[in-house]
Amino acid sequence: MKILGHRGIPVLYKENTLPSLLEPFYLGADGIETDVRLTKDNVPVLIHDDSLMNFCGVDVKVRDLSLAELKRYKSNGESVPTLEEFLKLAPKGKCLNIEIKEYEAAELAISMCTTLYDGGLIFSSFNHSLISELKVNYTSLRFGYLFDEGHAKLSDEEIFSLFEQNTYSAHLPVVGLSYFPERFLKIIKELKRRNVKIVVWTVNDRKDIEKIWGYVDYIITDDVRLFL
């Protein structure tokens, strides 16, 4: 089982800032999960939300700012990092789970990651159409489908159909185990049978995954220290 820091280690540092993203590596984690979007001038940057409200209390869209403009906004002295800045600092040989937040960011993020990073890469997204497209275009790379409550209405057959070819991982919310325990277990067992890696987010208590511990390949957590 590999332990990934959720947007770094947000219990210690502001999520997706360079201190947050790099600290899990120093603590011995296997890697991190982070989110990528584009600025107005098409620079991939690492921020979860589409606005800066959560980052620094300013209600402005990332997509409406150039990189130079974005860098003027700070949270505890830290600016939103670019993907390039992070990749040049990330230790080699680790695992980076890059969540693609915008369709337009996909190609740039993939090109930059594969060029600048020497280590494991998993590209994931809640946009299943995007992942289906990318895994056909980049057959040698690892792609995963992200699931949340918005996908609860999908039938089991619809879920399994996504994994019929060239899909590395399924990224499942740990809360699903509480809401739909029998279905959750059925789905992960079938996916494991198909050699799909199981990634569970966001796990902040070992007890949350006691029932499925043996099926989980990656844990995404706000505090990697809990699992190291």
Structural summary, described in words:
With 228 residues, this protein is an alpha/beta fold. 30% of the residues lie in helices and 23% in strands. The protein is built from nine helices and eleven strands. A hairpin with a 5-residue loop joins strand 2 (31-38) and strand 3. Helix 4 packs parallel to helix 5. The protein is globular. The termini are close together. The model has no long low-confidence stretch (mean pLDDT 97).
- Count of DSSP strands: 11
Mean pLDDT, rounded to whole units? 97
Distance between the termini: 11 Å
* Rg estimate, integer Å: 17 Å
Query: What's the shape?
Result: globular
Secondary-structure content class: alpha/beta
Low-confidence stretches: none
Helical fraction equals 25-40%
Number of helices: 9
User: What oligomerization state is this entry in?
Assistant: single chain
Share of β-strand residues: 15-25%
Layout of SSEs?
Elements: E1 2-6, H1 18-27, E2 31-38, E3 44-46, E4 51-52, H2 53-56, E5 58-61, H3 67-70, H4 83-89, E6 95-100, H5 106-116, E7 120-125, H6 128-137, E8 143-146, H7 156-161, E9 169-173, H8 176-179, H9 181-193, E10 197-201, E11 218-221
Parallel strand pairs: 1-2, 1-11, 2-6, 6-7, 7-8, 8-9, 9-10, 10-11
Antiparallel strand pairs: 2-3, 4-5
Helix pairs in contact: 4-5
Quick tags:
single chain; alpha/beta; two-stranded antiparallel sheet; globular
